[in-house]
Sequence to fold (107 residues):
Amino acid sequence: FAQLIKKFVMDKEQFLKEAQEKISVLTEKINSLTKELGLKTGDLKEKAQQELNKLLADKSSLTEKFEALKNASGDKWEEAKKAFTDLSSGSLSDGLKKGIDAVKNLF
Fold:
């Protein structure tokens, strides 16, 4: 039984580490795009800012799920893990990639 608990804790720690890395990479990309945005002007800047605002909202949702994931225990862990995975690799992930590409294309 102790070995099972140890495996659960290790799996949780590894998953949380990987989830944090995904959020960190996303944050770096958004920060980089924000810096580039500061150099732009006019309509291009406005369109890029709108896309960045969408990305920031999506990142906020992902971060919220991550916080819930960190605090989840027992049977809630699997539920929270699935919610984060669905969000980070499903339509939100596709939306984030499209949003990043849309901003990059404006530059």
